[in-house]
Amino acid sequence: VQLQASGGGLVQTGGSLRLSCTAPSNTITRGTTGWFRQAPGKEREFVAATGRGSYYAESVKDRFTISTDSAKNTVYLQMNSLKPEDTAVYYCAADDRTFSTRSFYFQAKQYFYWGQGTQVTVSS
Asked: What integer pLDDT is reported at residue 13 of this predicted model?
């Protein structure tokens, strides 16, 4: 399954962007879908996920919202109040399983399918 991530760009501090993750089938809307990000020189980190509930990293809670449009096989990440530290390449990931173990949502190794990443740059 090929995931297609889009919606990245350059935005000023305090601005908003909406990322999209689309797949040709309903894999990402019937199982678990997550967003991860990687900044230069840093490890990939969890951002948000949806499956049996929605989960967020503490650093983005109350600013980012993950949502699903099953009709379009698309998962969105609405990012508001963006900060320079949100600058990174954002990757969407998915798995056929709907995780029942909470910790799995936060672990990149649990996701089988990955998209190509989209750059988000927040200027100060």
From this structure: 98
